[in-house]
Write a structure and sequence with these properties.
Elements (H helix, E strand, L loop, with lengths): L32 H11 L30
């Protein structure tokens, strides 16, 4: 048969432009736990010890791990 051309698979597909969803980053350091608690109150979010980053305003994330795709054919 003919050799497989992966680029040919994309022919006729609709155009798609991905919106830039990257956020602006700002690193904040706290001298002590009290300062961090004050910051939590200020932004209205609890920040657990193992948290590396937060979104402001707080983002609600969809539970993608529980989604299942089933072939019904």
């Amino acid at each position: 048969g003919e050799p497989f051309d992966p680029n040919a698979e994309w022919q006729g597909m609709p155009e798609f432009q991905q919106e830039d969803l990257t956020g602006i980053k700002c690193i904040v350091h706290f001298e002590n736990e009290s300062d961090m608690k004050d910051f939590e109150k200020l932004v209205g979010q609890h920040i657990p010890d193992n948290t590396k980053s937060i979104w402001y305003p707080k983002k609600e994330w969809a539970d993608m791990a529980s989604l299942r795709y089933v072939n019904e054919s």
